[in-house]
Amino acid sequence: MPAGLNVPGISGEDQERIAQSGIDLSRANRCGSYLQMDQDVVHATCKEEGIEVLPYGVAVARYAWLNDYAWNLVPRDKDEITAYVAGQDRPVGYVIIAKKGSKNVLPLQACLFLGRETIQHVHNIVIAEEGAELHLISGCASGSHVGLGGAHYGVSEFYLKDGARISFTMIHTWGEEIEVYPRSAAVLGRDAVFLSNYVCMKPVKKVQMYPAAHLTGENSVARFSSIVIGLPGSHLDLGSRAILAARGASAELVTRAITKGGTIISRGHILGSAEGTRGHLECKGLILKDGRIYAIPEIEGTVVGTELSHEAAVGRIAQEEIEYLMARGLDEETATATIIRGFLDVRISGLPAALQEQIDASIDSADRSGF
Amino acid sequence: MLEIRDLHVEIGEREVLHDLSLSIGKGETHVLMGPNGSGKSTLLMTIMGFSQYHVTHGEIHFDGEEITHLPIHERARRGIGMMFQRPPTISGLSLGKLLAATAGGGDEMVLDLARKVNMDRFLSRDINKGFSGGEIKRSEMLQLMIQRPSFVMLDEPESGVDLENISLIGHTIGQLLDKDVHIVNRKHCGLIITHTGHILDYLDADRGHVMCDGEIKCHGNPREILKEIKTRGYRECLECRQD
Ligand SMILES: Nc1ncnc2c1ncn2[C@@H]1O[C@H](COP(=O)(O)OP(=O)(O)O)[C@@H](O)[C@H]1O
Ligand SMILES: [Mg+2]
Questions:
Q1: B97 contacts in A (CB within 8 Å)?
Q2: A297 near A325, Cβ under 8 Å?
Q3: Burial class of residue A28 (count of CB atoms within 10 Å of its CB; 0-12, 13-18, 19+)
Q4: Does B109 map to a domain?
Q5: pLDDT one-digit tens code per residue, B107-133
Q6: Across chain A, what does the average pLDDT equal?
Q7: Range of the domain at A355
Q8: Predicted ipTM?
Q9: Is residue B209 part of a domain?
Q10: pLDDT tens-digit readout, A153-171
Q11: Cβ <8 Å between B76 and A329
Q12: B29 neighbors B203 (Cβ within 8 angstroms)
């Protein structure tokens, strides 16, 4: 049993917020941990053979070849956010290298905690070599007292070599005054599988992200799943993109969005530019209180033999469904919550049970506090 | 047990049930027949309390209490249960989870009952999603077995069910209706919509009613009514009563 993760100088309440983001502070169910508080790397270890977890600075000093990876997928000059991160003298973030054939049974966790009223900048590189299987959960949280505002700028680059698998599950527990700008991209080799899951059940001022997966290897698979609630005052501008550039590549982008007064923009783009590619985009939105759900699904095919589709629906819970459950004895409120819980229940195939449970727990906590 | 007086029901702007009265005593099972569109399902949905069905006049009493305007779940909790003809699909909600929510625990009991109606393999599936006609009936039966209503309403329980499963459904309905209990001790009662009458092979019904154009036109022995309808058709059967 490893010693618990020592999080210096934060309150019990903030530890709870970190735990809600899927971070196991006891470390019992994780094979390794990375913990960054503001710009300080507090912890970076991994006990799984063949998987290295290093602070960005240490990693680039040790491995000159990382220069071929850094800023290779996300351009430095993409926007103000990337330029800000690229302009740092002392870049901070994590580098994870899963060696050929390695596999973690217990997930690896990365916790990014924003404790002060500042801009937290992060540059992450994740490499899964040939045949490696890496499961990573990223818990992002801010301290409950960061009242005047703060921001998180995060660049993440995922490299999946032939036959590699990465599951990346990100759970956000930010605050009402925090702005969050993740900038992520992945490149997939032959037969590689990339699962990217995003859960946000808590208020946040603004999240803006549009991660992309470049499926350059034959028969590679990308699956993005987002489960989000837009609370009053929250502006969530979310999207995901898949570029199907090799024969047999496929992608699925799934979003479940609920607004209780906040704005959710759900973008999606699939480009099929090779034969035998398949892509499906699905966005389902529920408006529980006046707010906004704006779904912008885009599918684009450029060759014979690509098959793309999308499905988007925004509405309310069907009265017929509520009444069906009421006829079984559930009161209206319980029936409604039961249906909403089901609506958010996206089963992600290939995700380890521990991570599915973490996603479920995050949704359950929103359920308990009342949808 | 159930007492309906002078009931008028509208769906949208249209009156579908006109001046309907019906009384079902403790331990009794009644059968409701009638041509398509005559208002049979509407009657059941109104008794259950669905919001689309507006009672504009008349009263429904259950167990000595007026329930005409009670919310659905209050009726369910007082012992009214129904098998739906076309229940909705609920994405993400598995049959097992719904049963757990209604049973309030007791996973063993749920699994046991599910096995009895060959639905144990469906517990993890989204409720009604892609269920065949027969599977819907069995899923509905299972939900009722857990709910154990004292007044059971069944909307065409045999339609879409193959011969093998019809006896399964028939026997389960029999249990729900206390048919294994001697008539003087029988507490549960029921109202069953049937076209074919096959269900009568598995349980005795005490009384039959024929509905036409939103009214009950004829009462009597269910088997005799059924025989009449089978040989002469609804039209003649109803005409015989109209003068
Ligand atoms: N939801 C509804 N909206 C509009 N009309 C309906 C609805 N349900 C039933 N009706 C109408 O009410 C009448 C009675 O229908 P129903 O009770 O389903 O008949 P039955 O079950 O006897 O076949 C029919 O004319 C039907 O079209
Ligand atoms: Mg009907």
A1: 338, 342
A2: no
A3: exposed
A4: no
A5: 788 999 999 999 999 999 999 999 998
A6: 94
A7: 320-365
A8: 0.94
A9: yes
A10: 999 999 999 999 999 999 9
A11: yes
A12: yes
